[in-house]
Amino acid sequence: MDQPADFRLEQRGGGARVALSGDWTSAGLGRAGARLIAALKGVRQVAFDVSALGRIDTSGAYTLVQAAGDAAAEGLSQRPDAAHLLELVRASEPAGPRGRRRMDPMFALLVRAGQGVLNLFSEIFFTFSFYGHLLAALARLALNPARIRLAPTVSLMERAGLDALPIVATTNFFVGATLAFLGANLLAQFGASIFSVELIGIGVLREFGVLITAVILSGRSASSFAAEIGAMKMNQEVDAMQVMGVDPFEALVIPRFIAMLTMMPLLTFVAMLAGLAGGMLVVWSVLDLSPAFFLQRLLDNVGPRQFWIGMVKAPVLAVVIAAIGCRQGMEVGGDVEQLGRRVTTAVVQALFALIVIDALFALLFMELGQ
Asked: pTM here?
């Protein structure tokens, strides 16, 4: 049976002598440890008398280490087992607040900046690695189209494309109407309200139709792809596929890639029609220009070139949305926190990439005189 731990303390100037007695174990420690820690607070040197010490385990050794703190400890050589335990506990004890040096704010800022740069280059490297793996999988499927999984591809086309049709059409309808209100109010100051038709046509066909559709799909489909694949990663279903000899890219990424690449131009076309309808309705009600006049002026002064410029962007943006969503899903670890972080990252990266790519297209077409 464990004897209760106890001690006798004698103060000696800036130091103290502690005579330990009883069993300093987890069962016999009781309140003695807390009392010893409080009694030795601020002491610079401690001499332990272990002549009456019974048994000691890691709980007792940890208590003695906490009580001594940074003070020099002596007298434990009489009990080699106790000295050895204290050495092990000191070696395994993490640095506490007293051993932690406060980091200079400027140094901390530089450390964070350096970590951000390293994370950026790491993200770029893994992104190119993912695209390389994706291109290799597409090349294998091009050589053997029978390996394409039609059932999940068609299902994803419905979920990522057709189910998004109402929100895409509604949003672009109001974007076209807003653009028409803006044009009618501003151009009326110069007596050029009739040019609202050209503003609506160029804005919707060239920029807003495809961009608003891509933004909606970034929040809707990129996050969905990341969450679905990430959940499968958490449940080790992706690992199970690899064990069974199934390429996760062919089973998970390629169907989403094909579905997005197929449905994005269709959704963009519907978005353009909805945007023009919203603009035409506002022009008809505010400027009293008939729909027939609106369509004729659209054909004469805008033409199909703006339409094709907008449609050219759709496949590129579809590839970006699908690739970012699937890649972030593949990077999910084993906990829910990582899943949430990766889903958020997928949406943010997709939106950022869309804006950058659209700006690059604008520069390209400007250089080409389009």
From this structure: 0.66
298 contacts 231 by C-beta, under 8 angstroms: no
Q: Are 318 and 312 in contact (CB under 8 A)?
A: no
Residues of the chain with CATH 3.30.750.24: 6-92
- Please determine, looking at this structure, whether the domain spanning 6-92 carries the CATH number 3.30.70.260: no
Q: Could you give the CA distance from residue 302 to residue 203 in angstroms, rounded to a whole number?
A: 10
Helix H or strand E segment including 218: none
Residue 223 near residue 325 (C-beta atoms within 8 A):
yes
Alpha-carbon span 161 to 351, nearest angstrom: 18
Q: What is the pLDDT of residues 268-296, one digit of tens each?
A: 999 999 999 998 898 888 888 888 888 88
pLDDT digits (tens, 9 = 90+) for 307-335: 888 899 999 999 889 988 888 888 887 77
Using one digit for the tens of pLDDT, what is the confidence trace for 94-111? 554 444 455 677 888 888
327 phi and psi angles, rounded to 5 deg: -65, -45
Is 190 in a helix, a strand, or coil? coil
φ, ψ of residue 19 to 5 degrees: the values are -95, 115
Alpha-carbon distance 271 to 264, whole Å?
Answer: 10
Which residues, other chains included, contact 216 with Cβ-Cβ below 8 Å and sequence gap of 6+? 164, 167, 168, 171
